[in-house]
Amino acid sequence: MNRTPLLVSLVLSLVVVGLLGGLLATGTVPQLGLDLRGGISAIYTPVLDEGEEVDDEEFDVVLDETIEIIRNRVDALGVAEPEISRQGDDILVQLPGLDDAARAQEVIGATAQLTFRRVEGLTSPEALEEAGEDAPDCVGEVQDLAEDESGVLCSAEANVGADGEESYALYRVGPAEITGDGIEEAFATIGNGGWEVALEFQSDASGQFQQITADLACDRDAGQLGLFAIVLDGRVESAPGVNPGVACGQGIAGGAASITVGGQGQEDDGEAEAQDLALVLRTGALPITLEPSTFQTVSPTLGAQSLDAGLLAAGIGLVFVALYLIFFYRTLGVVSVLALSVFGVLVTGTLALLGRAGFALTLAGIAGIVVSIGITADSSILFFERIRDEVRLGKTVRTAVQRAYTSAFRTNLAGNTVTLAAAVILYFLAAGSVRGFALTLGLATVLDIAILAAFTRPVVFLLSDTRLMPRTSLRVQAPPRRQTRSGRAAAADAGSTEEVTK
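and the corresponding structure tokens:
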């Protein structure tokens, strides 16, 4: 038996275990899912405008587009392993580790319909009443204008009077000339007046913006307002004028604008609002309005209790399996326990690495790991039983190990292939926590095959050449000795004599 390949395989497997063990020692642990870590779970229901009708095929397309936009927004929030999926006509959103429910609801559900409109004039409720027009409700939910419509819109911020009453500026605006689709980039930055969102337009929108600002500069020089309203979800966020340095007919080149959202002179005021606004503008507007039908926060304390219960179950199962293996298989039982320890380090370390890529461990995933403890133990038991069978047939321990491994590995590979196929099918066809179970089960199955080949095999092969694994440690009775021809003849004579005597 050539020891070199065995030693190389054993050393490499121990190096991998050492590296992952060192990673865990640095404090890197698997990311925890919503049921273990706590977080936010919500179901959003699409809401159509009154009188609006959408056929089923078009609705499915709109809903899929909405899910993709929400996923981009959630990814920008830095949530690990979010779950965003359809439940019939509703959208399920689960955000593990996020405890700011108000911010999550605002970011996810914000329609973010952005338009740029020329300001035709300022008005007031009294002026609108005299003209026979209805003043918009600036306190309740604001109805946005269609892109080709003109009308009156409220300012986003209220003005507080000396008596403490709030009032809103009313802008008469024209049709939308640039929409949010023309935005190339949006990011939060600090300006002279506080936090603001800087916008960069795409090439086509940039040319439109330059032409519009050129016209507005001429309006300004003619004594008109020359304002350009930035409208977000039916409210005028700001209505800046053209800088005096911009000449009539020249316009602002470069395609840049900004929305001021912060307070005067306070750098931290409005930072979160600016970042969230930039996020929803950057990821695009929702093609449909969403309302949260359920919105709940999962307590981290409850998740910690579930995690402790899962770890306790895994620990108890591992102790009982280890005691049984050592009692029944003795030396080989110790090898099996070492293989289980290697399995534990590899699974935990791999899940920690996957956590950096966004995977979060759920309670169902822990169930998959608990099940895999039995799978790993079965692989060792299969190998050991084949060794005992060979020894029972009269083979030496060394020969029995070599012959048993080939047969056991084929059987183990066939069984694990079926388990791995089931895990892959579950992962791609199932949803929710079932995918976590499928992933950990599939991962454990692959590691089980690798551990049997790269760790258990070389250890048992090397032990078979030592006194640490004698025939007696296998608890196998010695096979009956073969009788020689003279012995068989003597036995036959004795039997004949006995028969004559009778």
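(Above: one complete record from the training split.) The CA atoms of residues 188 and 196 lie 6 Å apart.
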